[in-house]
């Protein structure tokens, strides 16, 4: 193993390799910052470019894009209240309030260092304990996925920012929207009005753009004549002064990294869910849980550390078993196969130089997005001082172009505007939007896996219920679900009592 | 002054005419003058897209122009196939089509706005059959043992595969019909998740596409019992065909084929140029070497053979489609 690491190091010491990583990271940061350009698209569009490169160089570049775009979605989430990628939806809950208070640089620094540490820990897991962890990913069957989705939905309580009923309404609307499109098991079309662009359901990235950009644009236009400008920094403006603060959240960093890695290993769950679950855990455990939703540094760190820890986690089943965990790694698998490499044991023995070179390049990429991200963020921070009359139309343009470019489809612009209208109504009535995203992400998973679980036991509901308690992992998740519900109800009661008094 | 205006007007008129003129010429000699676009009905990074991008790279010298991939994903290919049917037939828009998906979309849904007669075949590029796999430690060593177990317990053996309404599921219903067996087909989000479910003992067997199962079979985690094709699969020479394994002829219409087609009514000279370019690239040793490295199962058919295949395959799929509804 250590010879292999040395072999990887020798591959890494090549200058072209470092240039490729830097190019990937720079591109990835840009892709992440711009809402509408997703990590998946970035990696997919660059695969043909990596054709002609040596495999480890091409893979290092793709890896750089994946890691850095997952991180940099937080920059637009913090500054503009618009998540650059779906992974940053939970970051926005506390990141943007911090920015409004004049702590933009602080929030971005927390996100950057958190992402870096989460990413590094996950790559360590990938490097040293990938094979046993990969076996864990095979233990997840349909009943486990179904319960995991249910558990994810209980997170709504934490995302509701005190307004539990409104959060539940938003979550329910998200779940309902997720039923649009073909049924995952029978292929029957539902609520599609005969429009082919709705057959696959409402595309997540398109709806994210609408849900967050449109209300923001309307809000900016409404306030265009206000002359007071938001403060950039009331604290220090050197991002590195916040590094000790990040490091002081030792337990938060460790817990969030672990959650991220585990979520990453389970195929089909992904970065945004990792962020949500970790945010929820941080809020439940924190002594200052009231600050969550109003600019809690702990919330930003928890979410960002976890969503980047997912990246290393997803690569574990990908490289050892050839099982991609999310759309980005599915595309990355194509990038690996195009060079004639086959995931599996062979990758770690026969092609050890390439594989370990790639894994070690991920360390470099995780470290490199810190200076590159902070450098770009330094200029992005000034965006919030741009006059609203310029900023609003710019964001609107980006939203339309972004929605169109995902599938080259005009209909997607309509979908974006429709979800945008929902977002505007939500904002008007102070309904939190994150539960809707959660419902949209997890609804499809929950429905499909429930249907599949039942199909596997030939529709026998009793047999399915027995499975839920007899399969060890599903039993553990079931206990988590009950605990989350119990705690949610207790807290809610406590709060209403305080109000009554 | 007046004269000057006339001169300017004349120059402008000439300039306009000279830009319009070339588009009237349809001389094959100067085709193609600009890059061609190839519509791919699936997302960037997927199997179809990757195959399309590799061939696009190698066809460039034979075509004399770049071939640019245009992804029009969505609705199981329907959006992209429709875009190709409606594309301008000037030769600059061609498309990558998937068989039998292009038939199945048309036959399973109402109001699909394309007909198979909207396309003209150029060449078939690859053929990726469906393969029946079990986990390495499964009790079933051969196809015979497996099918006997299925027959003993009709409708109860779980078989996972891409679905619903996929080419893999089509292959399963065809095989059930011919072999007189009945399995419980459970759809997954693609061949990859179906393989994962097999490795995780969620299902007894799975029916992934051969290209996605090859690496798992080669590294010994999965065992292939039979391949649904007339000939053995190039990268899995030890796996028997379904005829060899069962003695029964099972039509391999579930095999996923990818080929190139153009909108109907294209200028024959231009069509010939595109046909020739694809015929040449399919013999290009560099392309073949790259495809081998990636495990792309190439299978060339020229325009006439591909066209004939499309017609017979459509009829064959039609006769089984009711089993999927």
From TrEMBL, chain A:
Residues 18-438 form the DUF112 domain. The chain crosses the membrane at residues 15-37, 44-67, 73-95, 107-133, 145-161, 168-185, 258-279, 354-377, 389-407, 413-429, 436-455, 461-486. Keywords: Membrane, Transmembrane, Transmembrane helix. It holds the Pfam family TctA. InterPro entries: DUF112_TM. The keyword Transmembrane applies. It comes from the Bacteria. This is Membrane protein.
């Amino acid at each position: 193993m250590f010879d292999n690491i040395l072999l990887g190091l020798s591959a890494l010491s090549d200058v072209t390799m470092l240039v490729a990583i830097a190019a990937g990271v720079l591109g990835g940061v840009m892709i992440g910052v711009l809402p509408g350009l997703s990590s998946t698209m970035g990696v997919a569009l660059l695969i043909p470019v990596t054709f002609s490169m040596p495999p480890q160089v091409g893979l290092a570049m793709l890896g750089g894009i994946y890691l850095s775009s997952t991180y940099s979605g937080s920059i637009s989430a913090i500054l503009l209240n618009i998540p650059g990628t779906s992974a940053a939806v939970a970051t926005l809950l506390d990141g943007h309030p911090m920015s409004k208070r004049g702590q933009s640089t602080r929030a971005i620094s927390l996100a950057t260092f958190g992402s870096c540490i989460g990413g590094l820990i996950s790559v360590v897991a990938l490097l040293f304990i990938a094979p046993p962890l990969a076996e864990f990913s095979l233990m997840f069957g349909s009943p486990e996925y179904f319960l995991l989705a249910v558990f994810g939905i209980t997170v709504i309580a934490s995302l509701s920012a005190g307004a539990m009923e409104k959060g539940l309404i938003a979550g329910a609307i998200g779940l309902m929207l997720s039923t649009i499109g073909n049924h995952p098991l029978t292929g029957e079309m539902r609520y599609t009005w005969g429009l082919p662009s709705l057959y696959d359901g409402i595309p997540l990235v398109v709806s994210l753009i609408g849900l967050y950009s449109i209300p923001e644009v309307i809000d900016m236009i409404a306030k265009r004549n206000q002359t007071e400008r938001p403060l950039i920094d009331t604290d220090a403006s050197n991002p590195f002064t916040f590094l000790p603060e990040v490091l002081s959240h030792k337990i938060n960093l460790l817990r969030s990294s672990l959650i991220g890695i585990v979520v990453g290993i389970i195929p089909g769950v992904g970065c945004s869910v990792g962020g949500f679950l970790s945010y929820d855990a941080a809020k439940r455990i924190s002594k200052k849980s009231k600050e969550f939703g109003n600019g809690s540094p702990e919330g930003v760190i928890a979410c960002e550390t976890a969503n980047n820890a997912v990246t290393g986690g997803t690569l574990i089943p990908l490289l050892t078993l050839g099982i991609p965990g999310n759309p980005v790694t599915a595309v990355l698998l194509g990038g690996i196969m195009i060079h004639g490499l086959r995931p599996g044991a062979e990758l770690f023995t026969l092609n050890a130089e390439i594989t370990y070179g790639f894994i070690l390049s991920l360390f470099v990429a995780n470290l490199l997005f810190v200076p590159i991200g902070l450098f770009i963020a330094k200029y992005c921070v000034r965006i919030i001082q741009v006059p609203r009359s310029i900023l609003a139309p710019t964001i609107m343009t980006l939203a339309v172009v972004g929605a169109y470019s995902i599938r080259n489809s005009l209909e997607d612009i309509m979908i974006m505007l429709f979800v945008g209208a929902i977002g505007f109504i939500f904002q008007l009535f102070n309904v939190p939007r994150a539960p809707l995203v959660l419902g949209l992400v997890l609804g499809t998973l929950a429905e499909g896996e429930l249907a599949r679980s039942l199909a596997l036991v030939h529709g026998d509901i009793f047999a399915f219920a027995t499975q839920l308690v007899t399969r060890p992992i599903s039993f553990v998740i079931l206990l988590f679900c009950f605990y989350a519900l119990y705690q949610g109800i207790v807290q809610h009661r406590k709060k209403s009592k305080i109000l009554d008094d | 002054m007046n004269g000057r205006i006339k001169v300017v007007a004349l120059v402008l008129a000439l300039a306009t005419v000279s830009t319009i003129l070339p588009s009237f010429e349809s001389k094959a000699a100067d085709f193609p003058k600009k890059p061609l676009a190839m519509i791919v009905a699936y997302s960037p990074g997927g199997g179809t897209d990757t195959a399309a991008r590799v061939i696009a790279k190698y066809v460039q010298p034979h075509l004399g122009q770049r071939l640019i991939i245009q992804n029009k994903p969505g609705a199981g290919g329907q959006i992209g196939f429709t875009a190709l049917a409606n594309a301008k037939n000037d030769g600059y828009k061609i498309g990558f089509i998937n068989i039998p998906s292009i038939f199945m979309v048309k036959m399973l849904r109402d109001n699909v706005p394309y007909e198979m007669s909207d396309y003209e075949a150029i060449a078939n590029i690859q053929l990726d059959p469906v393969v029946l796999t079990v986990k390495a430690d499964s009790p079933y060593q051969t196809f015979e043992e497996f099918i006997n177990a299925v027959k003993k317990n009709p409708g109860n053996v779980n078989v996972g595969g891409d679905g619903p309404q996929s080419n893999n599921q089509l292959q399963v219903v065809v095989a059930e019909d011919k072999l007189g067996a009945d399995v419980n087909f459970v759809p997954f989000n693609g061949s990859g998740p179906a393989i994962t479910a097999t490795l995780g003992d969620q299902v007894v067997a799975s029916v992934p596409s051969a290209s996605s199962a090859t690496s798992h079979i080669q590294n010994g985690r999965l065992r292939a019992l039979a391949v649904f094709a007339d000939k053995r699969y190039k990268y899995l020479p030890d796996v028997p065909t379904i005829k060899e394994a069962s003695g029964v002829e099972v039509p391999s219409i579930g095999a996923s084929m990818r080929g190139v087609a153009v909108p109907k009514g294209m200028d024959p000279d231009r069509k010939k140029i595109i046909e020739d370019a694809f015929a040449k690239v399919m013999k290009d040793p560099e392309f073949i070497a790259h495809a081998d490295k990636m495990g792309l199962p190439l299978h060339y058919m020229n325009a006439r053979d591909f066209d004939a295949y499309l017609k017979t395959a459509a009829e064959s799929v039609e006769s089984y489609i009711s089993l999927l509804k």
